[in-house]
Design goal:
Elements lengths: L3 E3 L2 E6 L4 E3 L7 E7 L2 E5 L7 E6 L5 E2 L1 H5 L7 E4 L3 E7 L3 H7 L1 H58 L8 H12 L4
Antiparallel strand pairs: 1-2, 2-9, 3-8, 4-7, 4-9, 5-6, 5-8
């Protein structure tokens, strides 16, 4: 990799297939894509691998949480084609902002877009959970109703109980005298 600089940041030429950074590794830098395509993956090279996104727009950023939060990498970045990236450190970020206001704006837009997508995912998940809870509640109510109906049919078959007597009353009466329902 040639050692070129851009506003105090190293410019990297990355070959196709190269892992740029790995999920879980410590970090304090971010990357700005100049050319090529990068894939972001969860659980890269495992049976649970999942591609989060493909980044191919020149000026797009990746790994920003490393720069701003210093959290471990939350995904693995892999060059899907030959790429040119600028690795931006915390120390040189202010000079990068001054030298590249348009690319800084693009970083902010990328973050905003990712936030919107994350919010939409949360909304979708909430709707799925809400729908699942309603379905579960309906299933439980139907189960109770069907049990009541079965008990009523059995009690109607075995005894001559007037139709206006609720099954709960019969069960209560039956369990008092016999100790159990059956």
């Amino acid at each position: 990799m040639p050692n070129r600089q851009d506003a105090g940041n190293q410019v990297l030429s990355i070959s196709k297939g190269t892992v740029i950074y790995e999920q879980g590794t410590p970090c304090s830098t971010m990357f700005l894509l100049r050319s090529g395509t990068v894939g972001l993956y969860l659980n890269y090279h495992t049976s649970q691998q999942f591609q989060l996104s493909e980044i191919s727009l020149p000026g797009a950023s990746l790994g920003e949480m490393g720069l701003f939060e210093e959290d471990p990498r939350n995904s693995t970045a892999v060059a899907l084609t030959d790429c040119e990236l600028v690795e931006i450190s915390q120390e040189s970020f202010p000079s990068f902002i001054e030298a590249h206001p348009d690319e800084t704006r693009q970083i902010i837009l990328d973050l905003s877009q990712r936030y919107k997508m994350a919010l939409q995912e949360v909304k979708n998940a909430h709707l799925i959970i809400q729908d699942s809870l309603e379905t579960l509640k309906e299933a439980q109510e139907n189960k109770k109703d069907s049990l009541k109906e079965r008990i009523k049919k059995i009690s109607d078959f075995l005894l001559d109980i007037p139709e206006d007597v609720p099954p709960e009353l019969y069960l209560s009466f039956n369990s008092r005298f016999h100790g159990t329902m059956f």
